[in-house]
Amino acid sequence: MPLSLGLRDEENERINNVLNKLMELTFVPDGWLANDAESLLTQLGLSTESLEKMTDSELKEHVTKMHFDWANMERLADMLAVNPAFKEKALSLYSFIQTESKIFSFDIFNKINALSK
């Protein structure tokens, strides 16, 4: 069921706040292993284990189902790109954003090229 505009804005703000906290943890050594990261991922309906097991298409379905907007999808991909184990998932999300948003972004294009090397 689609969210109303007000609820969508609230949900995007909640997702954005969780992603901000997760991004802060990516700069902490072993931040991915911290309990804080797991609890934050749980708020997004994810865990490191589920991320490892998810296929690229399952991840795309998940972020769509969780009502991530394009900016929050990109932030999630940015966070995933920091961890070498999730590099391919980040690439997949960037590509998904680039094609499905129907707006070409040089920033995302550069991120895809940087990760592809």
Structural account:
This protein has one domain. The protein has helices at 5-25, 35-43, 48-53, 56-65, 70-82, 87-100, 106-116. The protein has 117 residues and is mostly helical.
Helix and strand topology:
Elements: H1 5-25, H2 35-43, H3 48-53, H4 56-65, H5 70-82, H6 87-100, H7 106-116
Following the backbone from N to C, one meets helices and strands in this order, namely HHHHHHH
Average pLDDT works out at 87
- Taken together, the total number of domains comes to 1
Give the radius of gyration.
Answer: 14 Å
* Helix content percent band: over 70%
Oligomer: single chain
Instruction: Please tally the helical runs, counting DSSP H or I stretches of 4 or more residues.
Output: 7
Query: What class do helices, strands and sheet pairing give?
Result: mainly alpha
Beginning-to-end CA distance, first to last residue: 40 Å
Number of strands: 0
Report the principal-axis shape: globular
Strand content: under 5%
The profile of the biggest β sheet is:
none
Low-confidence parts, pLDDT < 50 over ≥5 residues?
Answer: none
